[in-house]
């Protein structure tokens, strides 16, 4: 039978086949190949008389992520809170960079706007060409916007701990009843209430994943984005590649740089360019063989 892995815990994989969920182990051959099944994988399984399954094959992946561990994702729902914790645009830009690199469509959802405002943040990302949804739980318009984005897609909700991913999903009225937690005032970030990645099937088609919160992404080590590729993962920078005065421009400080000119003209937000420069500095000395 063919199915999709919805959950993976302690070496057990829970595969949806039709309307049923089958607990499976993976064949040892995958370990020898250095391949491990992950949530989102489309797989072929066999089932014995006790209704215990074995994963026999893993279909080619559209994409795969190390953190959070998922495969075959259509879009990232990047959740950013207005307060508790305060927004960290550098982390947001790292997530967007990874999404672009993996050919995943990012959608930005700003939460807790009923508690505080985020002046200018929505404009930064709309100017860069991203879809931005603003969530005020005292209003209703946002809910249908989010549901429309989710329909028929495999979507991963991600962002720092405490930004309100699980709360947001619970407010959508999909009956998920996900556990939520408080933000640690001492650490300034949320306590981890989601312990593993799990896909939930939507009644109107598609899946959503609630993923463990994380505050940092080891961009170059985990996802393999090197300095020459980084420029293409910022969608307002990518069209300007090749327009600079000098070949091999890093877009950080050079004269005749088309990206810096666009920055001065207000076509690129300063925070976005600052994130690009910080990421470039982090990856500029990394070689392929070091990954």
Automatic annotation (TrEMBL):
It is an enzyme of class 3 (hydrolase). It is found in: Cytoplasm. Monomer. Associates with 30S ribosomal subunit, binds 16S rRNA. Transmembrane segments: none annotated. PROSITE patterns: ENGC_GTPASE (PS50936), G_CP (PS51721). It comes from Neobittarella massiliensis (ex Bilen et al. 2018). Residues 71-215 form the EngC GTPase domain. This is Small ribosomal subunit biogenesis GTPase RsgA.
